[in-house]
Design brief:
224 residues; alpha+beta; 13-stranded antiparallel sheet
Length: 224
Amino acid sequence: MSRCLKPVFILFILLTVQGCASAPFKRIDYIPLAGVNPQQIRQDFSDALAPEIEVINSIVFQYKWQQFSALGYSQIDRENGTFRVSCMNPVGIKLFELTGNRLEVVPGFVIPQLLQRGDLPRAVGEDIRRIYFDMLPEPFAKTEKQKYKVIFSQPMDKGIVKYVFAGSRHRLTEKHYYEKNRLLWSVYYYDYLLHNGRLYPSGLILKHRRFGYNLIIRLKEVMN
């Protein structure tokens, strides 16, 4: 078994295991976007998105025919690129706590069983960055207008990231990362919560296509 997949299998032991389920979110209501200005879409979303996020989420990990659940606390500073995350299983056992930034992940506490089965904290930290960081394309990003979508493309790391804006409110609905024309991971943003005048992602799915697992997150409570 590869080292990269070991964290997934240990979670089958530590979390409640259930059968797979379909995506629990309502589909995006696509409408024609012929008259929209891509840069205005970007700016409007930038103005509405919460710069700091402190939330409690329910989390479902899916791998092949199994799924398992957890409860997570996340504190995200999007502007400064830092985060703090802790996670427990459904019976209240704390699994790990970590902090990180755009360059590193620092475990504060990790249940010993996780340390024996691979680098789960780093994997979780990388997924947090994929979901909550870099939610806006840069002003220089290449734009492509389709009938129902506006797509921004720009370099990221060793590849290309594509942002898809769609729906009646023109919000970010998808983010895809490619290396050498190969799609490695995607984030789908289905729902947003408007809280104190700011938007919080409230229903999303991360699909890690390289390692074959899904991460489904549903917002439970906004703390800030």
